[in-house]
Amino acid sequence: MTQFNPGREVVVAGVGLHPFGRFPEKDLATLAMEAVLPALQDAGVSWKDIPVAYFGHVYYHGMSVGETALANLGLTGIPIINVENACSSGSTAFWQAYWGIATGIYDMALAFGAEKVPRGPVTVTPEESPERYIGGDHMMAGYALRMRRYMEETGAPATAFAQAAVKARQNASLNPYAHRKQEYSLEEVLQSRLIADPLTLYQCCPTSEGAAAAVLCAADALDRYGINEERTVRIAAAVLTSGSYNGKGSDHSAFSPYRTEPGAVKAYEMSGLGPEDVDLVQVHDAATIGELQQLEALGLVPPGEAWKATAEGRTALNGDIPTNTDGGLLAMGHPFGATGIRMIHETVTQLRHEAGPRQVKNAKVGLAQCSGAGDVTTVHILTK
């Protein structure tokens, strides 16, 4: 296994977030700017201080989208890298920014993501692929198959999955940036419209519009930029993986959680921490089954037992594994290119103890896991 030996300590100096939802009056550049400017202000730096920027997005909005999004800040000639890595696009941009600083190429970097996801079903394969014709390419159909298998193998009841959706809406009701803030009962979740058996509507994330941004800086460069060290959050691990054969007979579809396992192992090794040290976690919960299986893949609960932890309230804000504290994809929303950095925003906010009514007590270590169709995942661990 590759050993990670970053040469420098890297911190998050500032974060910014545009609300998630639907904003027909705003173009992509406007969404991006309304996340980037708060991130710069939060870090206490100006645009001219930024030597490189990484932009996560998925849907086609023209060529050189990152350059277009940042043009209104001024053309400073810096490298602007456009990143497409499915739903992990934003978190991959963050990963690239981290390693650009850790290896000494840059002292500071901007990572941001923005998206205007079209309404309707999400597909991940080319139009001519066989999956399109048999219906297996629909994102929620894949999650439904995985959920049915999990229920058969573990005996998990439908109510356990519905509880994940109830918890997500409860957290989102405390978050002014969330797309879906209305709370629902278990019965309302289970009785909502069937999308792909056994998944109902309220167990599937909404597609959204929105943006998120983060300013990263080398710890040894904070004084040079006049950044307040007390507000910075250390990046203890930054890992990006893709699929490989694991011998477990697991599939390698766009919906598989198994690629998270090796990413988590590397992240724990890099940080010197373990699952027992994590105070809160953000995971990729495009559907309720996603949250449960990612918790298991991260080693936060034993295999096959995430449904019990959910039903027992352990993943709630006052539980011992607070999960998706801002509402997650299920309720915060899912503008693909922004989601991974939104997770960083929430983790930083929690570790600064600035999350208000959804604050996790004594939070010192946060983990953010973001998956992308095409067998990719990122795992970041942040500490305060």
Tally the beta strands: 11
Helix content: 25-40%
Distance between the termini: 28 Å
Q: What structural class should be given to the helix and strand makeup?
A: alpha/beta
Q: Enumerate how many helices there are, as a single number.
A: 13
Instruction: Tell me the name of the CATH homologous superfamily of the domain at 10-119 and 207-231.
Output: Thiolase/Chalcone synthase
CATH class of the domain at 10-119 and 207-231: Alpha Beta
Can you give a write-up of this model?
The longest helix has 16 residues, at 28-43. The protein is α/β, with parallel strands linked by helices and 384 residues long. It is globular, with a radius of gyration of 19 Å. The protein has a domain at 10-119 and 207-231: Thiolase/Chalcone synthase (Peroxisomal Thiolase, Chain A, domain 1). It is 34% helix and 19% strand. It is built from 13 helices and eleven strands. Helix 3 packs across helix 13 (336-351). The protein has helices at residues 28-43, 65-70, 89-102, 130-134, 139-154, 158-172, 186-191, 222-225, 260-271, 288-297, 306-311, 328-331, 336-351; strands at residues 10-21, 53-56, 80-83, 108-116, 194-196, 199-200, 209-218, 233-242, 280-282, 365-372, 376-383. The strands form two sheets. The protein has a nine-stranded mixed beta sheet with strand order 3-2-4-7-1-8-11-10-9.
SSE layout and pairing:
Elements: E1 10-21, H1 28-43, E2 53-56, H2 65-70, E3 80-83, H3 89-102, E4 108-116, H4 130-134, H5 139-154, H6 158-172, H7 186-191, E5 194-196, E6 199-200, E7 209-218, H8 222-225, E8 233-242, H9 260-271, E9 280-282, H10 288-297, H11 306-311, H12 328-331, H13 336-351, E10 365-372, E11 376-383
Parallel strand pairs: 2-3, 2-4, 9-10
Antiparallel strand pairs: 1-7, 1-8, 4-7, 5-6, 8-11, 10-11
Helix pairs in contact: 3-13, 6-10
